[in-house]
Design a protein that fits this description.
Elements: E1 6-11, H1 20-33, E2 38-43, H2 45-48, H3 55-71, E3 80-83, H4 89-98, H5 103-107, H6 110-119, H7 126-140, E4 146-148, H8 154-171, E5 179-181, H9 216-224, H10 242-255, H11 259-265, H12 271-297, H13 300-329
Helix pairs in contact: 3-12, 4-7, 4-13, 7-8, 9-12, 10-12
Tryptophanyl-5'AMP binds next to strand 1, helix 1 and helix 7.
Length: 335
């Protein structure tokens, strides 16, 4: 048993690769935090099913996501790195949380509203609507203290806190109430071609998304072709200069330099310098991760073995929480 506080986070295996937004805001934080926390890093494949997926592609993307976690620095011996569908407790607790969530409350989730609007109201699934309660279950099963995510996930973690408090007050203390953790700089990375929208696995323009597994030459070209503006000044201003601000955020997230330091360094320089140097920084950061991912993927049996062992470790804790929650709400437990 460890006395370190718990951390839980996850990503959807819903594309052929993770992208720079996932890396800059989430994986970077995970790496910084994993030694101080008893960390659980999940590949949330059940969440990925809330929008249509190709079955073979989803299986492949699940392994790829695991390989990218490890390649980016997550140590599967020190942290518990597992696939959500390998631990039955997740959908079980999600069901219980569905029963204490208000329809109006779930309808207010902005991610649901955005995704449902994209798909058309009638084709959006009930699973998409229930997505946040499955996410709450992920977090609450492990008595999680810290949830490091990008800032687009804050609202879901707020809902998780509300559900934990509601359950605890109705049925007696069962869940730790978690805290959301976001980075100060780079908590949200935007699309390089459409800097009003966040960089997303489901983006329609591939040119706006930097994939970790892209060829380095493709990555460099995407950064150099990022949209900026007709001005010449390099300064952070999300409203007036979204493209330039995004490039500064990415630089800050990867280099660790503050935005104002970068503004000073680029005073008097042009957009060509900003983009060229950022292209180099991104390629330098992502290339070793890409190479290590490809090595890990060459031995899928070993990867599957690691994931299975980690899922057993996760199940021990998650099963105990579900049993407790089942008992508290009045379900008759199987002896
Ligand atoms: P997903 O797969 O969409 O995103 C994974 C992580 O990447 C962050 N992120 C971004 N950060 C900055 N800029 C962007 N453009 C960007 N796009 C994505 C997300 O904030 C997230 O941290 N619902 C979660 C997955 C999940 C989860 C959980 C997370 C399921 N259960 C429990 C934490 C705890 C999600 O959207 O993943």
């Amino acid at each position: 048993m460890t006395s370190k506080p718990r951390l839980f986070s996850g990503m959807q295996p819903s594309a052929r690769s993770l992208h720079l937004g996932n890396f800059a805001s989430a994986l970077t934080q995970w790496n910084q935090m994993q030694s101080e926390y008893d960390a659980y890093f999940c590949i949330v494949d059940l969440h990925a099913l809330t929008v249509p997926q190709d079955p073979e592609q989803l299986r492949e993307s699940t392994r790829r996501t695991a390989a990218q976690y490890i390649a980016a620095g997550i140590d599967p011996k020190a942290s518990t790195l597992f696939v959500q569908s390998h631990v039955d407790a997740h959908p079980k607790l999600a069901w219980i949380l569905n029963t204490i969530t208000g329809f109006g409350e779930a309808s207010r989730m902005t991610q649901f509203k955005d995704k449902a609007a994209k798909q058309g109201k009638d084709s959006a699934s009930v699973g998409l609507f229930a997505y946040p309660m499955l996410m709450a279950a992920d977090i609450l099963l492990y008595q999680t203290r810290a949830v490091p995510v990008g800032d687009d996930q804050k609202q879901h973690v707020e809902l998780t806190r509300d559900l934990a408090e509601r359950f605890n007050s109705r049925f007696g203390r069962t869940f730790e109430v978690p805290e959301v953790m976001t980075l100060k700089e780079g908590a949200r990375i935007y699309d390089l071609q459409d800097p009003a929208s966040k960089m997303s696995k489901s983006s329609t323009s591939d040119a706006g998304v930097v994939w970790i597994l892209d060829d380095p030459a493709v990555t460099a070209k995407k950064i150099r072709s990022a949209v900026t503006d007709n001005d010449r000044e390099i300064r952070f201003d999300r409203a007036k200069k979204p493209g330039v601000s995004n490039l500064l955020s990415i630089n800050s997230a990867l280099s660790g330099k503050g935005i104002s330091q970068l503004e000073e360094e680029y005073a008097g320089k042009g957009y060509g310098d900003l983009k060229g140097e950022l292209a180099e920084l991104v390629v330098e950061t992502l290339t070793p991760i890409r190479n290590r991912t490809l090595e890990l993927l060459a031995d899928p049996a070993e990867l599957d073995r690691v994931l299975a062992g980690n899922a057993d470790r996760a199940s021990e804790i998650a099963d105990a929480t579900v049993r407790d929650a089942y008992e508290k709400v009045g379900l008759l437990l199987k002896p």
